[in-house]
Amino acid sequence: MKKDNRNLTFEEIEKLGEEVIGKTLGEISDSKYNLNNSKNKGGIGVLMEENVFQYKTNSDKNPDFTRAGIELKTTSIKKNKDGTFSAKERLVLNIINYMEEYKKTFETSSFWHKNKKLYLLFYLWEERIPRSNYKIIKQMLFEYPDKDLIIIKQDWEFIINKIKEGKADELSEADTLYLGACPKGQNKSSLRRQPFSNMPAMQRAYCMKISYMTHMVRTNVMNEKSENIVSSEDLEKNTFESSLYNKIKKFIGTSREDLIDLFKLNHKSKDIIERIFAGILGIKGKVNNCEEFQKANIVCKTIRVGENNLVRESMSFPAFKFMEIINEEWESSTLRTQFSEKKYLFVIFKEENGTYYFKGIKLWNMPLSVLDNNVKQVWERTIEIIKSGDIVKSQKKLSSGKLVIFNNFPNMSENPVSHVRPHAINASDCYNLPIPDRITGLTTYTKQCFWLNSSYIQKIILGEQGYV
């Protein structure tokens, strides 16, 4: 009688996994898996299921190894230029059935039933080599740390509450911290019914965010250490943002100068605000290196509010390359990914009588309704200008002899959320253009980036818990 490999014990699973460590996918595979077809995204997982663990791929709601209660997942690691390792992708789990999942508790949910224990096989992704040459480098049994599980439960509840509100169509991966609801399907036309709205919602799956997976890789492959900023005890009673607020509230109302003195910092440090906030959080390293921020893909941004209660600056993001952005599709674009997968922690300082005082924090992610409308419009208009060669609007020579160029990129008055303007060291800090500018003949142009309007940021933070 043939053995049912779905009934393997963990020891048997681990033994089979050990046999492929150090092997390439090509050494494990046979021709039917067509590994080098980049469109065959699930091929590597199927290969592991059928060739290594020898059970047929299925859509069963139970874990892959039913006896052990373990789900098998194969995922990729990449080596960065600085020698560190990161996850190449999020870890996609089971599809969310909007019509059924809201009826369950976390303990009876499809996520917890199927993914309580994960057996992970990591392979090393390398650019410009055939997928058949990717090598399996590590195996591990993963069970969620108790503290992480508190946040994951809160994430699951957020997703379910959004379904109950009839807003499954508004779900975004950036809504949550560790457990995400990521798109799952051929394209944006992969839609599902939702129970409390007639609006079809994009098919989504539970996932462990790429940032969470990167932290796992660096902890287990590179043995990196990171600092915690909130305790399990606080998280048991509060959300992550409330726990964070409890950590920093005693410093609210303290001046910038007093905080510099309190934490014994150098007034001339270029990253003085980051160092101040690290002190407020009680960590020694950089703010973005703390464990919770790493796992949740939270980026800190400083907001300065003037005495007139107006946000003083717009917020910049990395410069884009003209030659690359014109080849992007919106759904997978760098800009959309920036906002759909990340959270931002606004650290707010307000000016009073010429001195800046720490006024609090705001944890925020961009709503999809804003991202896929206002921001998309700016992105599309920017690409249209680059492709047409209509970058330069006019130019003027000043009395000093300096030539000033005015461009056609979307400005702050054209869109309530976002605009485009330079993000360069100087005018000669340029990127190549795909075609010469029609007016000037320029083949390069000053680096540009997308900005969030100061007025939009102001709407986000004004009135929030009395910060400003």
Written description of the protein model:
This protein has 468 residues and is of the alpha+beta class. The protein has 3 domains: 5-145 and 210-220, ECO RV Endonuclease, Chain A; 232-363 and 454-466, DNA mismatch repair MutH/Restriction endonuclease, type II (ECO RV Endonuclease, Chain A), CATH 3.40.600.10; 370-452, no CATH class. Helix content is 30%, strand content 24%. The protein contains 16 helices and 19 strands. The chain has helices at residues 10-18, 25-28, 43-52, 98-101, 110-115, 146-164, 210-220, 232-237, 240-248, 256-262, 272-281, 291-296, 322-325, 334-341, 368-388, 454-461; strands at residues 71-79, 85-87, 91-95, 117-125, 135-143, 179-183, 191-194, 197-202, 204-208, 298-305, 315-316, 343-352, 355-364, 392-397, 403-407, 418-422, 430-432, 444-446, 448-452. Strands 2-1-4-5 form a 4-stranded mixed β-sheet, with helices on both faces. β1 and β2 form a beta hairpin. α14 runs antiparallel to α15. It is globular, with a radius of gyration of 25 Å. The N and C termini lie far apart (72 Å). Mean pLDDT is 92; it is low at 464-468.
